[in-house]
Hints:
The complex is a heterodimer of chains A (about 250) and B (about 400).
Chain A: E1 5-14, E2 20-30, E3 35-39, H1 46-53, E4 61-66, E5 69-70, H2 76-86, E6 87-90, H3 102-107, H4 117-130, H5 146-158, E7 164-168, H6 176-191, E8 196-200, H7 203-207, E9 211-216, E10 219-223
Parallel strand pairs in A: 3-8, 3-9, 6-7, 7-8
Antiparallel strand pairs in A: 1-2, 1-4, 4-5, 9-10
Helix pairs in contact in A: 4-5, 5-6
Chain B: H1 14-21, H2 23-27, H3 29-67, E1 71-76, H4 91-96, E2 101-110, E3 129-133, H5 137-141, E4 145-148, E5 160-163, H6 165-171, E6 181-183, E7 188-195, H7 202-205, E8 207-211, H8 212-219, E9 227-232, H9 237-248, E10 256-259, H10 261-273, H11 277-304, H12 306-314, H13 319-355, H14 364-391, H15 394-399
Parallel strand pairs in B: 3-8, 5-7
Antiparallel strand pairs in B: 1-9, 1-10, 2-3, 2-9, 4-7, 5-8, 6-7
Amino acid sequence: MTPVLEVDRxxxxxxxxxxxxxxxxxxxxxxxxxxxxxxxxxxxxxSTLLHLMGTLDRPSAGRVLITGVDVEKLSxxxxxxxxxxxxxxxxxxxxLAEHQRVLDNVADGLLYSGVxxxxxxxxxLDALRLVGLDGRTNARPNQLSGGQRQRVAxxxxxVGDPAIILADEPTGxxxxxxxxxxxxxxxxxxxxxxxxxxxSHDRDVAARMGRRIEMLDGRVVFDxxxxxxxxxxxxxxxxxxxxxxxx
Amino acid sequence: xxxxxxxxxxxxxSADLARLATVGLRTRKLRASLSALGIAIGVAAIVxxxxxxxxxxxxxxxxxxxxxxxxxxxxxxxxxxxQPAELPDAAPAMIQRIDAVTRVQETGSVSxxxxxxxxxxxxxxxxxxxxxxxxxxxxxxGTSVARGSFLNAATAQxxxxxxxxxxxxxxxxxxxxxxxxxxLGTTWFYVAxxxxxxxxxxxxxxxxxxxxxxxxxxxxxxGHPSTIYVRARTDQVAAVxxxxxxxxxxxTPGEVDVSQPSAALVAQADAQGAFDGxxxxxxxxxxxxxxxxxxxxxxxxxxxxRSEIGLRRxxxxxxxxxxxQFLAEAVLLATIGGAVGVGMGVTATAIYxxxxxxxxxxxxxxxxxxxxxxxxxxxxxxxxxxxxxARLSPTEALWTV
Lengths: 247, 401
């Protein structure tokens, strides 16, 4: 079976002065139905990896394949279509449209995939049911708690039935209890067969994932899903740390 | 787009694009309405200038249309030597023989001055002239009597006079009563009637009219017509105009002047209606300032909505989708401004024109052009912000707040 995501010897160098190597020779693959936590401290290259996995950016070297499709070979327009149909994003800041009710926020997840509005809304209702918010379809985002807002964002990522969901620090803006509830929700979705990759700096979050990939200084230092489980230790000729303070 | 990967970019449905275009307007209402107001004021100024000038000329044009545009006036010109020429006595009868001519009436200039009574010093002639006239003149030139009656076959023989509108005013006569008379230098003439203004034959206004036989009997008139008023069939006016000179005076057609008074009046009405270039220019400047306002608002909007742009890219929007959204928003903003502006301009025209009792006329070009200009301005003003929004890389848009 083709993995839904393959990261193959990927490097990313930002052409700043001096150049910053954010990722170096990163390889792993994710099969359908996996729940993966990518964890690492600030500056370890997690966010860069997220950009590359989400096809929001292209690698400097190596290949990223989504459902077997090589991102390198796609035009900008095709990448957009790939994101519209095969990738769902969940962000730390939720990014909900305050002027729209919950149902339409979720329906907008299908806006760019050519689905008519009535169909978008009916699928949005299904997605809201999955996250347990089908009772709040007409609420505005500002009438919801943080946890509920993140559920709406998760429903928006789910609505297109993507091959993979990328969640960037999904509990980062939530208190501990609410964060736990969101993780339970992700676990439940995983049980239903949804492929989810959670990126976090929080080891506790990663510990709850079925598979854990640890990053440090732009490299994968541990992958519980790899055959040998432990990536062999390496010299500390590590790439320059990114200086912009971003992870 | 076809592709081996089966990844097909979907066009945004127009209903979705329309909804997206309203996002910025709905979320920032005050700012949107203020920037639309700039466009509205510019469009209103232009619509009002065009509307007011059209309304001013419309009344006059209507009157001309009612009077008919088929009146031709034949006048004696000058001889080659520069002397005043005379029209042949037989000219009216000759013109009458032209097929397309429906009516012919003539007047002849009679020398002499007009006074209210014998005691007025002869120098105070009020610049009035005496014209001998045929009795069917009124219907041909398109006027009628305001008071009393016009000359008829009987009164045309007698010392009776009908006053042109301006002549009556200058003589201080505003009604006709029996025994009312004026002094024509040598003889008393009794006032039979007063005319309404003759728009198509203004020379009649400042004249007093007497019958041909009376002019010959009492004022020493030689009987030569000097002006012939001709009504032709409307579809034949140009043809008749072309042969009038030769028909009137076959020997020396160059001594005859033929004119079409309605043409001159239409030109005058147009001149009256010519919109004021200054105000129109002012409107254009306001519109330009409005356009800069829209561009400014859109640029700020793009800056503020980076995360929305990033999110949309993550949801699968292409650069084209983003560009279309922001361009549509700018066009919508300007179009709303344009529509409000047309409304304001029409209202201003209606109020002003009805205050002057003029017809309210809004030329289609003003309202359609106003909206059209607004759409164009929106597109131009929105182009750069839309392009820069589309250029934003998704990672930059999402992670730089």
